[in-house]
Amino acid sequence: MSATTTRFPRAILFDAYGTLFDVHSVLAQAEQLFPGHGDALSQLWRQKQIEYSQLRTLADPAGSHYRPFWGITLDALQYAARKLGLPLDTVGEKRLMDEYACLSAYPDVIAALRTLRERRRTAGAAQLALGILSNGNPQMLDIAVKSAGMTGLFDRVLSVDAVRAYKPAAAAYALGTRAFNVSAREIVFVSSNGWDVAGAGWFGYTTFWINRANTPAEVLGIAPRGTGSGMADLLAFIDTLAAPEQP
Amino acid sequence: MSATTTRFPRAILFDAYGTLFDVHSVLAQAEQLFPGHGDALSQLWRQKQIEYSQLRTLADPAGSHYRPFWGITLDALQYAARKLGLPLDTVGEKRLMDEYACLSAYPDVIAALRTLRERRRTAGAAQLALGILSNGNPQMLDIAVKSAGMTGLFDRVLSVDAVRAYKPAAAAYALGTRAFNVSAREIVFVSSNGWDVAGAGWFGYTTFWINRANTPAEVLGIAPRGTGSGMADLLAFIDTLAAPEQP
């Protein structure tokens, strides 16, 4: 370990959907099925997916209304199509769900993850573990990681399925501190979702918001520790944290 | 008490915002401030208001991130204006919040509540109590009930503020069974919000969904016990429940 770096941060945890995987890469398929409505369907599908996950956990944090994320994703698609008056049949539904199973990664993701792994190799194995902490159920995440070409880039792929509670429930975020056996403050939690960054911040993580779409900050009384427009900004942020404290 | 009625239901509990009070009656004011954008602002304001309340409770059901609904309503307005790129100054903000404080009732509400109270008077005081169970904080609800001309129509006006947990948390719904000292099944819970109807159903209430906007049912694996397009349908539903069991 270099004498000029501190041991902080110890790990980086990434949200998956919307952060690593581009959930709107289904847009092209949706637009092909429903010309002129692909964007609206894609947006509402995503909004309802998040809403349904949160409602089920809020109604019972112990998980009696829990349904795996793949099922919630299908429920949300069906609602969104009905709300928009789009005639979604089982063939169209399967095409969109298949597309969702194999989302593209954002173009800046793979190279940045490789850079972070290279730093880890240079610095020693105990430094800078990489992980995913996602609402997706394990099978979904497994397929998504493989199809996006991220196999072997993460030390841990954590699914909230283990606690049957969706983010921003504390039980979901606690999977990260438990997996890496370090305090929340020593973990950088990265998400493109404003609500996820707020939840992770409330839990105690050092948060970084990748604001890809240049949307305004959520008004939730808690700001991310760092913000940027993509993975390059995250790398710069990590450098700042790893720099020695000024005397 | 008439010999032809059963003791079921014992009470009717109404959601307030979106069910009794028309949250989109702020639309005219919003449209005046931002011509061509009133509807979008009104819709996004409402969506974020609900989202923020749920996020705060989900992150900690014990209430450490709780913020009274009036504050959340302001937060949501500020976010919605920024997201839509609308230059909301403090004067405009005050005008919209003042409007929100004194929402109109839907046109069918007052007469229906009077009908229900009249039935109660005929049937005896123990029968068919009327209440509100709302996310709104007590001061908000007090002003809203008065300005909508509903003073004296309810036996109880219950605010989730008492438990610092927003619907659909079970602690919020439990305020109703505690206040009326009857089982959830004996209370008809009425809401225009699909997520609220689902949450109340999960809790055990006999639910009625007033689907004013003719939107599709939420795909949450639980259906309301009754559905209608307005208060007249609710009255008919109550009649059905109160009818004697067939031998």
Short description:
By secondary structure, chain A is α/β, with parallel strands linked by helices.
Word description of this protein:
The structure is a homodimer of 247-residue chains. Chain A is of the alpha/beta class and 247 residues long. Chain A has helices at residues 27-33, 38-59, 69-83, 90-101, 109-123, 138-147, 170-180, 194-203, 231-242, and strands at residues 11-14, 129-134, 156-159, 187-191, 206-210, 226-228. The longest helix of chain A has 22 residues, at 38-59. The relative contact order of chain A is 0.17. Mean pLDDT of chain A is 92; it is low at 1-6. In chain A, helix 6 links the parallel strand 2 (129-134) and strand 3. Chain A folds into two domains: 11-22 and 105-242, 3-Layer(aba) Sandwich (Rossmann fold); 23-101, DNA polymerase, domain 1, CATH 1.10.150.240. In chain A, strands 3-2-1-4-5-6 form a six-stranded parallel β-sheet, with helices on both faces. Chain A contains nine helices and six strands, in the order E-H-H-H-H-H-E-H-E-H-E-H-E-E-H. The interface between A and B is medium-sized, with 33 and 33 residues. Chains A, B: It catalyses: an (S)-2-haloacid + H2O = a (2R)-2-hydroxycarboxylate + a halide anion + H(+).
Provide the CATH superfamily of the largest domain in chain A: HAD superfamily/HAD-like
The oligomerization state is: homodimer
The SSE order of chain A reads: EHHHHHEHEHEHEEH
Q: Which whole number gives the mean pLDDT of chain A?
A: 92
* CATH architectural label of the largest domain in chain A: 3-Layer(aba) Sandwich
Q: Briefly, what CATH class of the largest domain in chain A?
A: Alpha Beta
Helix content of chain A: 40-55%
- Biggest sheet descriptor of chain A: 6 strands, parallel
Question: What does the overall shape of chain A look like?
Answer: globular
Largest interface: A-B, 33 and 33 residues
* Arrangement of strands in the largest sheet of chain A: 3-2-1-4-5-6
Q: β content of chain A, as a range?
A: 5-15%
Work out the radius of gyration of chain A: 18 Å
**Unreliable sequence segments of chain A:** 1-6
* Structure classification of chain A: alpha/beta
Please, how many domains of chain A? Answer: 2
Family (chains A, B): Belongs to the HAD-like hydrolase superfamily. S-2-haloalkanoic acid dehalogenase family.
Pfam families (chains A, B): Hydrolase
EC number (chains A, B): 3.8.1.2
Function (chains A, B): Catalyzes the hydrolytic dehalogenation of small (S)-2-haloalkanoic acids to yield the corresponding (R)-2-hydroxyalkanoic acids.
